[in-house]
Amino acid sequence: MTGFEDLAEGCISSILSRTTPVDAGRLSVVSKTFLSAADSDAVWNHFLPSDVNSIISQSPSLANAPSKKALYLTLSDRPIIIDDAKKSFQLDRKSGKKCYMLAARSLHIIWGDDDRYWIWTAMPDSRFPEVANLRLVWWLEIRGMINNLALSPNTQYAAYLVFKLIDGYGFETLPVDLSVGVEGGHSSTKIVCLDPNVERRQNSRHARFYGRADRVVGLPRPGVRSDGWLEIEMGEFNSGLENEEVQMSVIEIKAGETKGNFFLEGIEVRPKVDN
């Protein structure tokens, strides 16, 4: 009786290409034939996005990747900078789905070109050449946009605000509105606190916060990413198949209170992973 491992390598490659990168890695240990098939360009080309050549054309070093598997692993290991440093691109290692970060330079920031309120500065731990440093504003409004067709189709995505607070102030008592939605269609808004250390800041400056601290009690707060930046989920959407613009916004314009020392790296859009 012929076993699965006795199939021709080309047949095994065809089967593996219909699984996932994780499955291909697991099945590669079955036999030498499976290992050869699981490492083949035929399999890993299927896991790469159809427009990968256009994307990596902006990163010449990747054109010399020794194999499709090597290219996949490189793209899933670290982001590449594209679109004149206004975006980064990466693959989700487990699924092969596309991930983008919109750099602060690609976002619409109210008063972002007025150095009384915002300045552009380099930070050594940022993937981008510069980030936006909020010095002081009363009116905080940041907007970004990405087209569904740039993303992996029919995929549930989430958008994340990526930033730092370095001696930040104002955010410990001010709720901020985060919104994600399709242009001209449905959008969802969540109210959050952008300061992860709100209790410590409030306790150290008790008089200033008296009577205002309860405005952020119980609100979602950011967490620390593996790269040291903070992030907080803005909302979810499904990429679908249509040519639609997904709009994302960060707004605090109600309180009329100052806030500052906020460093904006960008907005990341990546497949939603259920915990």
From TrEMBL:
<feature type="domain" description="F-box">
    <location>
        <begin position="6"/>
        <end position="45"/>
    </location>
</feature>
<dbReference type="Pfam" id="PF14299">
    <property type="entry name" value="PP2"/>
</dbReference>
<dbReference type="InterPro" id="IPR036047">
    <property type="entry name" value="F-box-like_dom_sf"/>
</dbReference>
<dbReference type="Pfam" id="PF00646">
    <property type="entry name" value="F-box"/>
</dbReference>
<protein>
    <submittedName>
        <fullName>Phloem protein 2-B11</fullName>
    </submittedName>
</protein>
<dbReference type="InterPro" id="IPR001810">
    <property type="entry name" value="F-box_dom"/>
</dbReference>
<dbReference type="InterPro" id="IPR025886">
    <property type="entry name" value="PP2-like"/>
</dbReference>
